[in-house]
TrEMBL record:
<dbReference type="InterPro" id="IPR029063">
    <property type="entry name" value="SAM-dependent_MTases_sf"/>
</dbReference>
<comment type="similarity">
    <text>Belongs to the methyltransferase superfamily. PrmA family.</text>
</comment>
<dbReference type="Pfam" id="PF06325">
    <property type="entry name" value="PrmA"/>
</dbReference>
<dbReference type="GO" id="GO:0005840">
    <property type="term" value="C:ribosome"/>
</dbReference>
<keyword id="KW-0689">Ribosomal protein</keyword>
<keyword id="KW-0808">Transferase</keyword>
<protein>
    <recommendedName>
        <fullName>Ribosomal protein L11 methyltransferase</fullName>
        <ecNumber>2.1.1.-</ecNumber>
    </recommendedName>
</protein>
<dbReference type="GO" id="GO:0016279">
    <property type="term" value="F:protein-lysine N-methyltransferase activity"/>
</dbReference>
<dbReference type="InterPro" id="IPR004498">
    <property type="entry name" value="Ribosomal_PrmA_MeTrfase"/>
</dbReference>
<dbReference type="GO" id="GO:0005829">
    <property type="term" value="C:cytosol"/>
</dbReference>
<feature type="binding site">
    <location>
        <position position="163"/>
    </location>
    <ligand>
        <name>S-adenosyl-L-methionine</name>
    </ligand>
</feature>
<keyword id="KW-0489">Methyltransferase</keyword>
<feature type="binding site">
    <location>
        <position position="185"/>
    </location>
    <ligand>
        <name>S-adenosyl-L-methionine</name>
    </ligand>
</feature>
<feature type="binding site">
    <location>
        <position position="142"/>
    </location>
    <ligand>
        <name>S-adenosyl-L-methionine</name>
    </ligand>
</feature>
<feature type="binding site">
    <location>
        <position position="228"/>
    </location>
    <ligand>
        <name>S-adenosyl-L-methionine</name>
    </ligand>
</feature>
<keyword id="KW-0963">Cytoplasm</keyword>
<dbReference type="InterPro" id="IPR050078">
    <property type="entry name" value="Ribosomal_L11_MeTrfase_PrmA"/>
</dbReference>
Amino acid sequence: MQQLALSLSATQAEIAEELLWALGACSVSLEDAGDEPLLEPLPGETPLWQDVVLYAHFEAEYDLNTIVTELCAHLPIETNAVAIKTIEDQDWVRACMADFKPLAFGKRLWIVPSWHQAPQAAAINITLDPGLAFGTGTHPTTGLCLGWLDAHVQNTDSVLDYGCGSGILAIAALKLGAKHAVGIDIDPQALLATRDNAERNHIPETDLQVGLPDALPADARFDLVIANILAKPLELLAPLLAAHSITGGKIILAGLLERQVEALIECYQPYFSMRLAAIREGWALLEGSRKP
Ligand SMILES: C[S@@+](CC[C@H](N)C(=O)[O-])C[C@H]1O[C@@H](n2cnc3c(N)ncnc32)[C@H](O)[C@@H]1O
């Protein structure tokens, strides 16, 4: 297998991608050439970084020098922006699987990929593989939420997982002892993933209901509301999440950075008594109790 790496602007990358597919590439991928995080694009949005490194892979029989010449005929690319190398063949699926190992959260909870044996058979083990929706437990924000759920959920009646992604938090809450959960997401792919993961973990449909935000009845109230989104949506969602929380109910917020803590506490303080519960790798976890 051969790899072509190109340093390009976002506009050049879009043109180069099309050309490379037409010239026989078997894969094309793009990476950020700088440090420009694109956090959570909305469903259907595919924003690009300003400066991009494009990797294209070609089978051994292709002459990459000819392909670069073709490309340069259409795009003003500097020769030092192009690198060609040969890549050793390897089992990519196996290499990717090796990155995901069972992870423990708190005292009772493990997230275990399906190709691994559960390290502690007596623990609360959730089978979960990486997929198209966010939430495998490897990200610090999910980890913070799972740790909190492990420490606090026992006989919680009802849980609202707002921005459920893979459904990992709702599923964990149910396995830890919650009786009923609702998972809400704006991304239909996340709803499919949540349903799929719930089924794999033998959670009946009646215990975990899943839907788009519009599907949540206005009068639904929960003992625990948990939302791992980003600071901006969390800010906008404050009145809505408050409306779905019972008096004395708990709220857990994640997905905000340490520097965003103060502003977010201010947003939720009219409805909840808020406090900073934990920080991990620059990400914060907020905890609150619904005021009467
Ligand atoms: C960071 S992921 C969290 C997934 C999972 N709950 C976890 O903790 O790993 C955030 C999820 O929130 C969803 N989301 C973003 N904005 C939202 C909004 N305004 N309302 C509902 N869901 C939203 C995204 O589609 C995404 O699936």
